[in-house]
Write a structure and sequence with these properties.
five-stranded mixed beta sheet, DUF8127, alpha+beta
Length: 227
């Protein structure tokens, strides 16, 4: 293949690539991802995290939330509940669906004991510190962005590093912290630093189309010279 034909082939390949450019130059616009800012706050209360929601049953004074809470409040005042079971009925080891109860301004640990066929349900008081230690996570076992927020006050994390945004309750050096998302930002990833406008994208596509046509035309000229 002589020099003219080689140049014609190069211009042809370049021209085809430029004409096909709209297929790969932001065909669906610019891609984005969510970026979350987390902040850490020292707290002296138990926060409403997902873990606390499932593991702590809260029964306030008013209004009375359920029949279950009515029995719990009664047990919290020192009155256990006794049930006579049928001979063929057992008790599941995971009898209670939660680990702690809050009633009358205090925390309790629910218990279920089976003596013969008599099932006794009761609540034993536990300290707030016991519940805090159990519900909190150690800083060393926390995700990277949680550790950074506790040490620095805040941190950022992208959605690719998260299963889903959630609040963390963390114990560190004798104190307890709530680490929660406070701000969400949608940032472009296509260019990495800014999102080009629709007009800029269309201009690039038009320039590529014109350049592609010119390259194909030039390829034809060089091919003719090589004959």
């Amino acid at each position: 293949m002589n020099r003219e034909n080689r140049l014609g082939l190069v211009f042809l390949v370049l021209g085809v690539a430029l004409l096909a450019n709209p297929l790969f130059l932001y065909p669906d616009g610019v891609s984005y991802e969510e970026r979350y800012t987390y902040e850490a706050s020292a707290v002296d209360y138990l926060p409403h995290t997902a873990d606390a929601f499932y593991r702590v049953k809260s029964c306030g004074w008013n209004p009375l939330q359920s029949a279950e809470c009515a029995a719990i409040i009664d047990m919290a005042r020192g009155d256990p509940v006794e049930l006579e079971l049928d001979p063929d009925r057992g008790v599941d080891p995971e009898f209670w669906s939660f680990d702690y109860v809050r009633a009358d301004g205090q925390y309790f640990e629910p218990n279920a004991t089976l003596d013969g066929r008599t099932l006794t349900l009761s609540l034993h008081p536990v300290s707030t510190e016991t519940v805090r230690r159990d519900l909190s996570e150690g800083l060393a076992e926390s995700p990277r962005y949680v550790r950074e927020a506790v040490r620095n006050g805040s941190s950022t994390v992208t959605e690719s590093e998260l299963h889903e945004p959630e609040t963390h309750y963390v114990a560190f050096e004798g104190r307890y912290y709530v680490v929660e998302p406070v701000e969400t930002e949608r940032v472009p990833t296509g260019w990495g630093w800014k999102a080009p406008s629709d007009a800029a994208i269309e201009a690039m596509r038009l320039a590529a189309w014109i350049g592609g046509v010119a390259c194909v035309w030039r390829a034809g000229e060089w091919t003719e010279r090589g004959r």
